[in-house]
Design goal:
This is ABC-type Fe3+-hydroxamate transport system substrate-binding protein. This protein is α/β, with parallel strands linked by helices and 485 residues long. It is built from 19 helices and 17 strands.
């Protein structure tokens, strides 16, 4: 027999309880044999997919991390049976286990939550208040209103808030504003615009509040305090290294390309323990790398929970050479390094264009990717397209729509896209390599003029290299070397 907050419950092996702060559990057992009690602490994640990009967020349980126990114990076995009955037996993909775990926890929470009971400890009220502050930090807030939302008197709310958060409600609101301001400072916005966006009408008052928290003025924060930067998208590590900064963590390329990134400055300077797997959340590695700032791209769905580790700035992606580099250089105080790279690239690009024109005129080039699921022909609206069709002024394959970013095709459609030269990349999976063999043995492939004249080149990891400045410099050299024969 167990007594939970005064309610007697019959307990058997395997029973599952949700315990929240302040809950009293007493046990009385008839046997003299030792009993075993386990406390399970867990962290759950949810995975979302949109436009072929995956993002990670924290699941929103009915009672976030604080679940009331019902008047009847629910065993783990019963909860799993309840969940399995609701699941289709035919659902399966690589993320099924993660989703099932999340759904199971939701199911158990639903069974354990008591309908109509109050919230004696104010847990739900405080959670509602924190959620409200997170969404409305830029608005004017009165402590009286927040206390009423939580269901407390003003004095009790202030004491409870400080006990839970180790700061007053006012300090917490300021912290939320400053955290968002640090993200916005890594953009082209001026300090006055940032101040207004995070809820300060007076720029000077914002500057004083920021300096009180961070120790420096907003205009100096990135240059003076942002020394440890984590790169959360391909190419951002290359941008930082080109500017003379080594990221404390960066994505590993080995999950995306057939062989490792060959440039020593892009692999050796970043410790292996802080190379991030692009298929995982990497929360633990990011926390251990202790970044001052994390940089990601607007091409990814954003994970707001990353801001719990460090402010996450979102960079506007550009396929035009030098544009992102110059933007980052201006913020980080590295304008000279950016200007040097842009000048070298222009000179190299001019020489290569002249050499290609001398040998081939203005040939057409196709860039084809073989994945486990598709054959894809890339157009001009991506990084390799910008390199081939803008920087080097080559032509798109005949029959390719001018405005298409990329086009997924079937094997029988390959012959529709004629090009003088073909660059082909294959994803680093057995399925992709098998699909490549189907392509190479097909009549559609062998009928192509570029194939008959042996003008097909291995693209390797050029697709990902072209996202960064140093990689882009390597890529135009590589294209030139292949077209020279």
């Amino acid at each position: 027999m167990a007594v939970v907050n005064g309610t007697p419950l019959t307990v058997k092996k395997g029973d599952l309880f949700y315990v929240q702060p302040g809950m009293t559990i007493e046990g009385k057992f008839g046997s003299e044999q030792a009993i075993h009690v386990s406390i399970i602490m867990f962290r759950a994640i949810m995975l979302h997919k949109e436009n072929r990009n995956w993002s990670v967020s924290q699941p929103k349980f009915p009672f976030p991390a604080k679940l009331d126990i019902s008047s009847q114990a629910i065993s783990i076995h019963d909860a799993i049976l309840y969940f399995i009955k609701r699941e289709s037996p035919h659902r399966s993909d690589r993320f099924t286990k993660s989703r099932k775990l999340s759904n199971l926890l939701h199911a158990v929470a639903s069974l354990n939550s008591t309908q109509g009971e109050g919230d004696p400890q104010g847990v739900l009220g405080m959670e509602r208040t924190l959620a409200y502050i997170a969404q409305n930090y830029s608005k004017e807030m009165r402590i009286e209103h927040l206390a009423k939302m939580a269901g407390f008197s003003m004095n009790h709310f202030t004491r409870s808030f400080k006990h839970q958060m180790n700061m007053t409600p006012t300090e917490y609101i300021v912290k939320q504003r400053i955290s968002k301001a640090k993200q916005l400072l890594f953009s082209s916005k001026k300090a006055k615009e940032v101040a207004e966006q995070v809820g300060y009408k007076d720029e000077h008052y914002f500057s004083r509040a920021f300096k009180k928290v961070e120790g420096v003025a907003p205009t100096l924060y990135i240059k003076n305090k942002c020394h440890r930067i984590a790169a959360l998208y391909y190419g951002i590590d290359d941008h930082l290294l080109t500017l003379g900064l080594t990221p404390v963590a960066a994505l590993s390329y080995k999950e995306r390309v057939s062989y490792s990134y060959p440039l020593p400055e892009l692999s050796g300077d970043i410790e292996n323990k802080f190379k991030l797997d692009s298929r995982k959340s990497n929360y633990e590695k990011l926390m251990r790398s202790k970044p001052d700032m994390m940089l990601t791209s607007d091409r990814l769905l954003q994970d707001d929970s990353l801001n719990q580790i460090a402010p996450t700035a979102v960079l506007a992606h550009s396929n035009q050479y030098g544009q992102m580099l110059e933007q980052m250089a201006k913020i980080l105080g590295r304008e000279r390094q950016a200007a040097d790279w842009v000048e070298r690239y222009r000179e190299q690009m001019t020489v290569i264009k002249q050499n290609i024109n001398t040998r081939w005129g203005t040939p057409s080039v196709a860039f084809i990717r073989v994945s486990p699921h598709f054959y894809r022909v890339y157009g001009a609206g991506n990084q390799t397209g910008a390199l081939l069709y803008d920087d080097l002024a080559l032509h798109l394959p005949k029959g390719f729509p001018n405005r298409e970013w990329a086009k997924d095709i079937q094997l029988e459609e390959v012959a529709s896209f004629h090009a003088d030269h073909i660059f082909i990349m294959t994803d680093p999976t057995d399925e992709a390599r098998q699909r490549l063999q189907l392509l190479l043995r097909s009549e559609q492939w062998t009928s192509l003029e570029a194939v008959r004249h042996q003008r097909v080149y291995e693209a390797g990891d050029m697709f990902f290299k072209a996202l960064g400045p140093t990689g882009r410099m390597w890529a135009i050299d590589y294209v030139a070397s292949q077209l020279r024969g």
